[in-house]
Design a protein that fits this description.
Layout lengths: L6 H24 L18 E7 L6 H12 L4 E4 L1 H6 L1 H9 L3 E4 L11 H15 L1 E2 L9 E2 L8 H8 L5 E6 L5 H9 L5 E2 L8 E2 L2 H58 L9 E7 L6 H9 L7 E8 L5 H7 L5 E6 L4 H11 L4 E4 L4 E3 L3 H5 L8 E10 L4 H25 L10 E4 H6 L10 H11 L3 E12 L5 H21 L9 H34 L4 H23 L10 H25 L25
Parallel strand pairs: 1-2, 1-6, 1-7, 2-3, 5-6, 9-10, 9-12, 10-11, 14-16
Antiparallel strand pairs: 4-8, 12-15, 13-16, 14-15
Length: about 625
């Protein structure tokens, strides 16, 4: 197997950096002006000598008119252009130079601060992209302001321009009458016209041309990116709202129907059960797992089959030393979890099979609760209620909230729609006939539980959810371990979705609801939600739009309320809810990266290996778990 390429992280970070850079530059170019400060230098001019300095352009309408007036008068001028206008109208800037005029810079924007080196650098980059040159003329001088901003009478403006008997005359090139003033000045006797400087622009460096191309693209397309951002945010908000409504509606309805059925409960269903426990290096947890299963209070026979898949830590020896009645240990060379499950299924003697991970602890009634839906002959599989046992610490609380407000609540919804896509490896049961129909557990994906559940549903069996069948599992105790586990889950789920894409054209619940639910809320929403977070940062820090933060806070409040509702539905305390806002700010970003990197892995064609998580053996120390002896 190939190693997971670290270039995936670089791809994600570069993508985020490019997006933020583009929209930030767009905001810089179009949104927030700052006061002007002139710093240009020029040579001293003798009396009777005039130098015309136009600034504020190039303008697609007025600059060509000014150029025509200057050509008719035989006068050359210096045009102090702004970078933003050069980017918008590069052909006009090129005409200025082609007709023999000098070109200088008046900042990137008309209101730009020329003491700001970034402002000047952006302006030089725009010039480099449009003309391929770099100029040392920065900041339009203003020895004599023509007054063309205040007066429109040409005679008055000419007298104002000549009041000092010469010098640099500052004119505007953005829709005023600067060209007409220049024409009239040329008619005045006793004056000659010169350029502010004889220094020609120099060729721009390759770095400046590259920077110019990037800034030009950003300025021209930043608006489009913002529109795409807005569209993505709208879709993400709608999906988030839709999921919340489904949670509040379908989950509540499903729980209400359960309560109603409990008023006249059906006869207790107690078939004999075989429990298969695939185990690889589970020495720290295998004792608690096997004892919790063997100590069940199910009314019928329960056999436990531990399949040691080539462990190197003595897992099989520890399980055998327990010497518990009804427990069988099978050893095999390491072949992977699907092979271990299939080996246990072949060894099992009963028609109802519970498949459970080697780090899971059952409550005494878990087996009995889990098999109740099999009283309906149409049910081929049952999902139990997996809970985080080691929920101490912030990371543990976050995962506990994720299980309750995410996975388990999803199962409530999908149970109502009859299209549960995943019976978790931690606690699930299958009818043997359903397993035979789909050919056992496949090793085609890294999410064998999702692959198997989808196959069972497509084969015509119903998959049920039994929240009363509680099982406690050890969640990763480190961020690195968490990322490895969720990365495998996410990648494996996408593999299973692709494998079973044919369900979309079938007249079954998996195609009508299940895969579409995963596409909307486990793929599209995690991809779009980071855009909302980025846009909040953009609006708050760059675009001076604090309303974005308020909208995000309201959205977070709704999600927190939904999470509290999920905890109540699952019979959990609301105390951990204080950690939920932090989870959405920090933990959620890691889950987004997991989804994004899973897609990049698939796009790169990388074969992802199975990534096991190091066990701590601290499951039994956590509050809320069932202690077994």
């Amino acid at each position: 197997m190939k190693r997971t390429p670290r270039l995936h992280w670089i791809s994600i970070l570069l993508g985020l950096l490019v997006l933020m850079s583009v929209v930030s530059f767009h905001a810089y170019a179009a949104i927030r002006p700052v006061p002007v400060q002139q710093t240009g230098e020029h040579r001293e001019l003798p009396e009777g000598t005039l130098a015309l300095a136009f600034h504020g352009g190039p303008d697609p309408k007025w600059t060509p008119r000014t150029l025509e007036r200057l050509r008719a008068a035989g006068v050359k001028a210096t045009f102090y252009v702004t970078g933003a206008q050069v980017t918008r109208h590069p052909d006009v800037a090129r005409r200025i130079v082609a007709e023999g005029h000098r070109i200088g810079l008046d900042g990137f924007r008309a209101e730009g601060d020329l003491a700001n080196s970034l402002n000047v650098a952006f302006a030089q980059a725009a010039l480099a992209d449009a003309l391929g040159v770099h100029t040392r003329l920065v900041g339009a001088p203003a020895e004599v302001d023509s007054g063309d901003r205040e007066y429109q009478d040409i005679g008055t403006l000419v007298r104002m321009a000549l009041q000092d008997k010469g010098g640099v005359v500052r004119l505007h090139d953005d829709g005023s009458i600067g060209g007409d003033i220049a024409r009239e000045l040329a008619k005045q006797p006793g004056y000659r016209f010169v350029l502010i400087s004889d220094e020609q622009p120099v060729a721009a460096s390759a770095r400046e041309r590259f920077t110019g191309a990037v800034t030009t693209w950003s300025q021209r397309n930043g608006g489009i990116v913002l529109v795409l951002f807005g569209t993505a945010i709208a879709i993400a908000a709608l999906l988030g709202l839709l999921r919340t409504l489904m949670q509040l509606g379908l989950a509540h309805t499903d729980r209400r129907l359960r309560r109603e059925s409990e008023e006249e409960p059906p006869p207790w269903h107690a078939p004999p059960v075989s429990v298969v426990v695939p185990a690889f290096n589970e020495a720290l947890n295998i004792v608690a797992t096997v004892r919790s299963i063997a100590g069940n209070d199910h009314l019928a026979d329960v056999e436990v089959i531990v399949v040691d898949d080539g462990s190197t830590d003595g897992t099989a020896d520890i399980a055998e030393e327990l010497d518990l009645p009804g427990v069988t240990v099978i050893r095999q060379a390491n072949q992977g979890k699907p092979a271990a499950l299939n080996a246990g299924i072949r060894e099992a003697t009963h028609d109802v099979l519970v498949l459970v991970d080697g780090d899971t602890i059952f409550e005494p009634d878990t087996v009995g609760q889990l098999v109740q839906p099999f009283a309906d002959n149409d049910v081929g599989a049952v999902s139990g209620n997996a809970k985080v046992g080691n929920r101490q610490g912030l990371l543990g609380r976050w995962q506990h909230l994720e299980y309750c407000a995410g996975s388990n609540l999803d199962r409530q919804i999908l149970h109502a729609l009859r299209c549960i896509p995943t019976v978790p490896g931690a606690v699930g049961a299958f009818r043997r006939a359903a397993l035979v129909d789909v050919g056992g557990v496949s090793d085609d994906t890294l999410a064998e539980d999702t692959d198997l559940t989808m196959a069972v549903t497509r084969a015509g069996w119903r998959v049920a959810y039994r929240p009363e069948a509680k099982a406690w599992t050890e969640a990763p105790a480190t961020v690195h371990g968490l990322f490895k586990q969720r990365y495998r889950w996410s990648y494996g789920t996408f593999q299973a979705m692709w494998k079973h894409r044919g369900a979309l054209v079938e007249n079954g619940p998996m195609g009508r609801f299940g895969i579409l639910y995963l596409l909307a809320f486990h793929l599209l929403l995690p991809l779009l939600a980071p855009v909302m977070d980025l846009f909040v940062l953009y609006g708050f820090l760059v675009a001076d739009a604090p309303l974005a933060l308020i909208v995000w806070a309201v959205f977070l409040l709704i999600q927190t309320a939904s999470a509290g509702y999920a905890l109540r539905l699952d019979g959990e305390s609301l105390k951990p809810l204080w950690a939920y806002p932090l989870q959405q700010v920090l933990y959620r970003q890691l889950m987004y990266v997991v989804v994004i990197q899973s897609l990049i892995t698939a796009a790169h064609g990388t074969q992802l290996r199975w990534m096991s998580v190091r066990r701590t053996g601290r499951l039994m120390d956590a509050p809320g778990t069932v202690h077994v002896t």
